Amino acid sequence: MTPVQPKLSTDDVSLLMVLIDTNPFFWNAANTTSLSFSKFLSHVVAFLNSVLLLNQLNQVVVIATGINTCDYVYDSSAAGPLPNQRAESLLQKLVEFVVKDEQLGKEDSVDGIGSSLLSGSLSMALCYIQRVFRSGPHHPQPRILCLHGSPDGPEQYVAIMNVIFSAQRLMVPIDSCLLGAQHSAFLQQASYITGGVYLKPQQLDGLFQYLSTVFASDLYARNFLQLPKPVGVDFRASCFCHKNTIDMGYICSVCLSIFCKHHKNCSTCGNMFEYFTNVVEKLTLLPWNH
C-alpha cells in the first residue's frame, strides 16, 4: 500500500465532501420535516457557493445518498466556474440520480421511512479523499459533511463503523447535520470519534445560517471558534443476529462479533463456543474510543 503523502498545502484550503440524503420516503413524509426538498437544495446550493467563495482553491464534491444506490453528482473541479452553472449541473445530476435510484428499487414496498445507504456514500467519500491523497504531496484538508435525515439502518452497522475507523486513521473529520426528527446514533459516533461537529438544527427554515456559521469554516479556523460540542452521544452497538441496538450483549472472543443472545457458534467466524470456556462473555458495551 502506497503511504499517504504529507500535506504541504495551506491550512485554509479545504476539500469538502457533502453527502445529500435523497431518500424519497423521508422527504415525502408529511410529519417528518417542515423543509421541502426543493427548499433544502436551495440552502445547500447557497452554502456550496459560499464555501467556494471563501477560497478560490477550495473544492466541493457532492455525493447523493439514496435507498438503493449512491453516486457522485457534482465536482467543483470539473463543473463550470459560474454559480448558475454549478446549480444547474448539480440539480440535473440529482434528477438523474433520483430516477436511477427509483428504477433500482425493489418491487416490495418499504415499511416506514426506510434507511439510506449512508455506509456506501461514506465509503465513496473516503475513496475520493484517498485518491486525492495519492495524487501528489500538495492537497487540501479534507472533511466530510453528512446532510442526513433518514433513520439509522442497523444492517449497515458494521460497514459504517469500519468507515468511521478508517476516517479516524486518515484524520478526516465527519461533520453531521441531522434533518430528521430523531437523532442518529451512527452519526453521533462518527462525529465524536473523528473529531467532527454534530448538529441537529432547531429551525430548518434557517438551514443556510446553520451551515454557513458551523460547517463553512476550515479546520484551522475551527481552533478559534466555539462550535457545538457533542452532548449525550449514544455509544450502543447493534447485534449481528437481529440488528437491534443493545446495552448488554455477548461478544465472540475470536472475531468480536456482538450478539443479543447466547449462540452455540458464531455466525460470523463459525467458531464453536461449546468447545471453549469463556469464549462468549456478557459485558456492558463501552465507547469505541476506550
UniProtKB/TrEMBL annotation:
Signal peptide boundaries: none
Keyword DNA damage appears in the UniProt entry: yes
GO cellular component, one term: transcription factor TFIIH holo complex
Keywords: DNA damage, DNA repair, Metal-binding, Nucleus, Transcription, Transcription regulation, Zinc, Zinc-finger
Keyword Acetylation belongs to the record: no
GO molecular function: zinc ion binding
Family assignment from sequence similarity: Belongs to the TFB4 family.
Quaternary state and interactors: Component of the 7-subunit TFIIH core complex composed of XPB, XPD, TFB1/GTF2H1, GTF2H2/P44, TFB4/GTF2H3, TFB2/GTF2H4 and TFB5/GTF2H5, which is active in NER. The core complex associates with the 3-subunit CDK-activating kinase (CAK) module composed of CYCH1/cyclin H1, CDKD and MAT1/At4g30820 to form the 10-subunit holoenzyme (holo-TFIIH) active in transcription.
Function field: Component of the general transcription and DNA repair factor IIH (TFIIH) core complex, which is involved in general and transcription-coupled nucleotide excision repair (NER) of damaged DNA and, when complexed to CAK, in RNA transcription by RNA polymerase II. In NER, TFIIH acts by opening DNA around the lesion to allow the excision of the damaged oligonucleotide and its replacement by a new DNA fragment. In transcription, TFIIH has an essential role in transcription initiation.
Name of this protein: General transcription and DNA repair factor IIH subunit TFB4
Species in which this protein is naturally found: Rhododendron simsii (Sims's rhododendron)
